[in-house]
Amino acid sequence: MSMKEFNRNYRLGLSKNHLKYPAKDNFPLYTTHQNPVAKFLTVEMYERLFDKVTPNGVTLDKCIQPSVDYTGKICGLVAGDEESYETFKELFDAVIDEKHLGFGPNDKQPAPELEPENLTGGQLDAKYVKSCRVRTGRNVRGLCLPPAISRVERREVERILTESMAGLGGEFEGTYYPLSKMTPDEEKQLIEDHFLFQKPTGQLMVNSGSVRDWPDGRGIWHNKAKNFLVWVNEEDHCRLISMEQGGDMKATFARLCNAINEVARQMKEKGREFMHSDRLGYITTCPTNIGTGIRCSVHIQLHKLSKDPRFDEIVLALKLQKRGTAGEHTDAVDDVYDLSNSARLKKNEREFVQQLIDGVTKIIEMEKALEEGKSIDDLVAAIK
Ligand code: ADP
Ligand code: MG
Prior knowledge:
Elements lengths: L2 H10 L23 H5 L2 H7 L10 H10 L14 H4 L1 H11 L29 E10 L12 H16 L7 E5 L5 H9 L10 H5 L11 E5 L4 E5 L5 E8 L3 H21 L6 E2 L3 E2 L12 E7 L9 H7 L2 E4 L12 E6 L7 H23 L5 H6 L2
Antiparallel strand pairs: 1-5, 1-8, 2-3, 3-4, 4-5, 6-7, 8-10, 9-10
Helix pairs in contact: 7-10
The protein binds adenosine-5'-diphosphate and magnesium ion (MG).
């Protein structure tokens, strides 16, 4: 049996039983569920899609499982492979339109722009900006995504990526640390440097089965300077991260652009490429990350503005998102916030980084005004 057949059988084995019964009798019990799948998936749509199977053997039920097992606010939908977006288009398009605040079936993501030279500004005041980080997600074409991946395929993803990264030279020369073989000292160092990823506990990841077989096939790669990192087999096949202390967002983005291009080139030599669609941009496990997958963030200390009652609305008006010091679902420590672009789709990579630079520049202006005891009413009015 070929690996492709093995994987297809592996996935179909999980779901073929329900095909013996009428689709409508298998419809999930949605009650107080607050996710967009529960909102858009009707019995009729379910009947149209339930017996469809992607070339890799992914079914609709595989993709919607998180929407069934958690009633709170999550996206609820995951892709089991690149083709899930096509095979179950009717549902994916509805969820994408909702989560990206308007993206119709005829809308198209602009072409990628990993071009730092086209940025304006980008040296942010290091008195406020403690560190810069830009990350994106990528997946290897032809292999299933974490919700549907088999152990052998996951190890194959790890092999392809680590072999590609081993080919990197110059400032990108680095080492891969598989989670399963990490020494206590290595683990301690990576935690201290805020580089280590933990086993995901989010409802989407857990209920989609994406954390099966942990830590098999998972690991972290980083260069010597530890300013370019790659997470392997977490939520996507890889997350590529560029980060550094201080306020130089342009240099942070430039490093990410160079590194991605270089990794893609190494992969191409091995006959591999990243999943990408002309319409949706880069393909990711969670439909909320499609497009650029770019989250460009600063750690910024705002003693004054963070205490202003308008802080949240200012962040929102600048199309930014606020997180705590240790990332999503954490609180700010010593008034240090993680501010990043809130969208991933409908603009290219360079435009999202520009949006962050422009927004943070305005926020710093407000913080300075408040420090001098001035009113920020005019500055706030100007961004609305
Ligand atoms: P993502 O989903 O983009 O990886 P998370 O919110 O899950 O982001 O955070 C991942 C880790 O990255 C956390 O430890 C967080 O503190 C760190 N981080 C995010 N932005 C920055 C930044 N600008 N500087 C330093 N660390 C950061
Ligand atoms: Mg995260």
